[in-house]
Design brief:
Blueprint: H1 13-76, H2 81-107, H3 115-132
C-alpha cells in the first residue's frame, strides 16, 4: 500500500500522522546539522583569535628581548644604562598593549550562539503552530 492517496480517496489519519512524524524527524536532523556547522565555524574563529593572542605574546617577547638589548646598548652611549633599559621597557609595553587590543577586537566578533539555527527553529515553531490551527 502506498502513502500517496489516489484521486478518489483521502489519506488516512495514520498516513497523515506518519508523514508528519517523518517530516518532523527530517526537520530535526537538518536543524541539528545546521547547529553543528555554525558552532564549528564559530569555534574556528575563536581558535584563530586565541592563536593571535598566543602569537602576539611570543612575538612580543622575542622582539622585546633582542631589540631591547640592542637599544639599551645603543642608548647606553648617551645616557645611563638603567634609564636606557626603562625607556626600552616602556616602548615594548605600548607594543604589547596594541597587540592585545587587536586580539580582543577579533575575539569580539565570535558569536557563541548559532544565529541561523535559532532563526530557523523559530520559523519551525511557527510552522508547527500554523499546522495545529
Amino acid at each position: 500500500m502506498s502513502n500517496t492517496p489516489t484521486p478518489a480517496s483521502k489519506p488516512s489519519l495514520g498516513d497523515l500522522v506518519g508523514d508528519l512524524g517523518s517530516d518532523l524527524s527530517k526537520l530535526f536532523r537538518q536543524e541539528v546539522e545546521l547547529a553543528k556547522t555554525e558552532i564549528r565555524e564559530e569555534a574556528t574563529k575563536a581558535g584563530k583569535a586565541a592563536g593571535m593572542f598566543g602569537g602576539a605574546g611570543f612575538a612580543g617577547w622575542m622582539t622585546a628581548l633582542f631589540l631591547s638589548l640592542a637599544l639599551v646598548w645603543g642608548l647606553d652611549a648617551a645616557i645611563d644604562a638603567g634609564w636606557a633599559a626603562l625607556i626600552v621597557a616602556v616602548l615594548w609595553g605600548v607594543t604589547a598593549a596594541v597587540m592585545f587590543v587587536m586580539g580582543r577586537k577579533r575575539l569580539q566578533t565570535v558569536s557563541p550562539v548559532p544565529e541561523e539555527t535559532v532563526k530557523t527553529l523559530k520559523e519551525d515553531v511557527q510552522w508547527a503552530r500554523d499546522l495545529k490551527n
